[in-house]
Amino acid sequence: MEIREFEFSQTGLSVLREHSMGQNWPVVYLINNKNELYVGETTSAGGRFYQHLNNPERRNLDTIRFVFDDQFNKSAILDIEQTLIQMFMADQKFVLQNRNGGQSCKHDYYQRALYQRKVDDIWNELNQALLTNHNASTIRNSNLFKYSPFNTLTPEQEQVSQDILLNAIDCLESGETGTSVLSGKAGTGKSIVLIHMMYTLMSAMRVTYNDEDLTPDEQLELGARISLSNKIRDYVKRHGDLKIAFVVPMTSIRKTFKAVFSASKGTGLKPSMVIGPQEVLKKDYDIVFVDEAHRLARRKGITSFKSFDDACKKLGLNKTEASHLDMIQRKSQYSVLVYDGCQTIKAADLTSEQFDASLAVRDRTPHIVALKTQMRCQGGHTYVEYLDNIFSVSQTETLQMGNYDFKIWGDPNAMIKDIRDKEQDIALCRVVAGYSWKWKSKKCKSIAEAVSKGVEDINLDGKKYVWNMSNQEWILRDGAVNEIGCVHTTQGYDLNYVAVIFGYEIDYDDESESLVIDRSKFFDSKVKAGVDDETLKQYIINSYKVMMTRGIKGCYVYACNPRLQNYLKRFIAEA
Q: At residue 290, what are phi and psi to the nearest 5 degrees?
């Protein structure tokens, strides 16, 4: 591989044409000045160079670099281009001139892992040339990379995205109210699809789709996307810009998404678009996107009954029956809802009956679509289904998880030490637990303060630990690996490794061959308030499944109750 720099001028073009790969070979290239950057790919370096020299948008750029490699092919350079765009967006060194964030869908082509390693090699060389702020590992672990609007969708995600947006525009055109429900288990990329749909809408309102340098195959693949973009643009010309919002019920991840939108310069996405459920009362929207709609609240176990009641009164809703979803439906012509009933974890979450009732008031029958392919953890759909079967006590045999590191530990302190060691090597490794210990350190500002006051929360075989010191963006905080998080601080986030401690509130009963709970040993009062044991059991199980699907590379577990530990050992390899 060679990265070769040229002056961005006719002189530089002449020099490039003398290169053996300068005319008829797949390449990736970068054009930049001190502040702006364009990333591209082509099979004709000279021809594309000439086009850019005559493009008014590129006139202020002064340097072009080509990445030459005799192993490159068309699939590889498309993938490398798209990954580099994501990485540069997350790095924040340059403002990107790219408008479409790459071209094709994300395909699993031959030796893709090899070419993704080449991306890191390219990035590290650019880092040495002071063209990036951060190394490749830091970028890939960042939320700006994972939730980038420039994320390339898989064919499945792309089809779902197009189906929803076409349905939405048709609904707006007819003057009807409507809803799309996007379902899918944890890790299928639902949040990424929502962000990409918002980016598609904003892009269509602002710029013409860039279809330069497309091969016939690419024109065929992108035909539907270009048609969608044209349809959105035509609607906007006749009706004005779309008013859209991104509702995120959970405070912690909402702050993260605001940061992503703030950093997404040139995309049209703004942090003010990311709002809490009751903020929809401030205006009427054309389309509202809702992440984790199963976490929208009803009037039960919430923080402020008064603000909820005031909102209901303003909208003419019955406060005893209404939910945040009803508010969203009243204030939007079209809503796009990510929904997974298996991720409801507390009494305040709206019920499935309330969810269905809220959808029924729309003019159009709800448009239901689903994502099935597991994108987060390397265990894939097999791992997620395996967890479902373990928790429903229907699994009969042990399965091997391939390259997914799924282990049960006999020593919780050794497990925690291993996670801390992994944090030093690859970052984003955290320990989480069920809410089986009181939060005695809640008012402390540091672990040292908790220790000095003797209010550590969790005692595991004589070693003491504290709960998370922050509720907001705990996953991203320095020193978080030295604390123990809970479901509320981890839901919605990706980790490289997660270690899950099953508390004393959940056990396995050998006689009935079922999971059982002890509510007296469960200390999340907002979760258990006003719910029966069976409902609480489901909330607790859902919480553990949510936490166990956070890890990309692996999940470690330890159960405080010996009977549950022995049950889990039937299906999980011992460390």
A: -125, 120
Beta pairing partners, 37: 32, 96
Residues in the chain: 575
Q: What are phi and psi of 287, to 5 degrees?
A: -135, 130
Residue showing tokens 């719910």: 531
Could you give the CA distance from residue 487 to residue 504 in angstroms, rounded to a whole number? 16
- Structural contact between residues 508 and 490, judged by C-beta atoms closer than 8 angstroms: no
Query: Cα–Cα distance between 47 and 352 in angstroms, integer?
Result: 57
Strand pairing of 506-509 and 514-517?
A: antiparallel
Picking from 109, 224, 204, 214, the residue whose alpha carbon sits closest to that of residue 160 is 224
List, for residues 34-46, the tens digit of each pLDDT value. 999 999 999 999 9
Could you tell me which of 319, 305, 320, 312 has the C-alpha nearest to residue 280?
312
Cβ atoms 85, 56 nearer than 8 A? no
| Spatial distance between the Cα atoms of 328 and 311, rounded to a whole number of angstroms | 11
Do residues 418 and 426 make contact, with C-beta atoms less than 8 angstroms apart? no
Q: Describe the crossing of helices 155-174 and 216-239 by its angle, rounded to 10 degrees.
A: 30
Distance separating alpha carbons of residues 295 and 260, to the nearest angstrom:
21
Q: Would you list the DSSP string of 51-114?
A: HHHT-GGGTT--EEEEEE-TT--HHHHHHHHHHHHHHHHHH-SSEE--SSS-SS-----TTHHH
CA distance 229 to 41: 22
Strand, helix or coil for residue 476: helix
- Confirm if 328 and 174 have CB atoms less than 8 A apart: no
Confidence label for 113 from pLDDT (cuts 50, 70 and 90):
confident
Which residue type, as a one-letter code, is found at position 74? K
- The whole-angstrom separation of Cα 481 and Cα 458 is 15
| pLDDT recorded at residue 138 | 93
Residue 324 pLDDT greater than 50, yes or no: yes
Q: How far apart are CA 204 and CA 99, in angstroms?
A: 10
Helices (H), 474-532: 487-490, 525-528
Rounded to whole angstroms, the Cα distance separating 175 from 193 reads 25
Helix (H) / strand (E) containing 405: strand 405-408
Is residue 434 within 8 Å of residue 445, measured between CB atoms? no
Helix (H) or strand (E) holding 381: helix 380-391
Can you give the three-state secondary structure of 277-305, one letter per residue? HHHHHHCCEEEEEECCHHHCEECCCCCCH
As given in the structure block, the two tokens for residue 126 are: 């650019």
pLDDT for 153: 86
- The per-residue b/e assignment along 191-209, b for 16 or more CB within 10 angstroms, e otherwise, is bbbbbbbbbbbbbbbeeeb
Q: What are phi and psi of 465, to 5 degrees?
A: -140, 165
Tokens 């320990």 belong to which residue?
A: 431
Q: Do 546 and 491 form a contact (C-beta atoms < 8 A)?
A: yes
